[in-house]
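Pasting as-is:
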Amino acid sequence: MTTNPDVLVIGAGPSGLTAATELRLRTGASVVVLERERTAGGIPRHSDHIGYGMRDLHTVTTGPRYAARLVDAALDAGVELRTGTMVTAWTPETGAECTSPAGHSRLRGRVTLLATGARERPRSARMIPGGRPAGVLTTGELQNTVHLHHRGAGTKAVVVGGELVSWSAVMTLREAGCETVAMVTRHARPESYGVFNLGGRAMFRTPLATHARVTQVLGRHRVTGVELEDSRTGERRIVECDTVVFTGDWIPDHELARAGGLALDPGTRGPLVDALGRTSHVGVFAAGNAVHPVDTADVAALGGRHAAGAIARFLAHPDSPAWGGGLRIEVAAPLRWASPGWFHPHLPPARQRILTWSEEYIGAPTVTVSQAGAVIGRRRLPWPASPGRVFRIPWSLLTGAVPGAGPITISL
């Protein structure tokens, strides 16, 4: 097995697998992908419903089939894929220390790509009180239980969140024979796309509680219900259920980036990157949902492909300019973050879009880009800014920025 590959990819989800395949096809470089799970493919492999592959594979398929296609493409291209391999430590200087059924090993690539993805924050991180009964899950735990281990999930569930992944949880619950008795969101409307909200409510007839939050999980041995509070009136009520699924509220899996001393973006909480996926350390790249939480699997895959192009150029010209030297991108409320965090006038990001995240719903937002107090770009966009999903801004709005004139600020 290769111990010092040209490229070391950590994470075998859509972005990592797509980047690895692209690099092998473009350069013929040796590529090793490390994955802690026993099966590669990332979150889609246990999301057994339709809707994957539209933008990257130009098809529509289920999550497991999508994941299998990405794995097969990587293996066919000659990527060395090591599953069941946990990276216990990593720094750019020493490489990755790994533990697997084969024992301990160390790998150090000429280039490292962090494609570790993102995860949902569990109940404990959301500071919701109550006991610790069985039946409290995240979407990932739910889908793993139902689709991979073929176990049940109770009879009545409350889904916390109104994002796209929340409807995925509702679909999984239905497959497990569990009725969703309430979907709870603190916002005035579900955060998912309108077509999914309409279709989901028509198909599943899921009661929706808006302007609401879970204030307590009830039950001792098994969940018996949740207490909901209406943020407008302060009124509280009990919803009886035996399962609670906490969805969304994503955070990048950034432990390795932090351990490796990479600069982190305080907004995304992932590695701070430029438009090519370059981090603060030369030769270390990051892509997909490890950079920002959270986009769809196919967009994450395209981000991996974009980073692969930059990595290929770095392999050919390792003395090329390092990260930095551009303009820092900042945001004003209600935006939480922007990605990439650095702007270079001649380096467009993947799909020529700046990705942002809004904390408020704005139906037809006007985006204003300013620098040193002067407006350099303004446009009203025909798509909404909505909590719970990425808001995309054309990169062209930033191209009037002047090098050396200070950071760029994006506002709505």
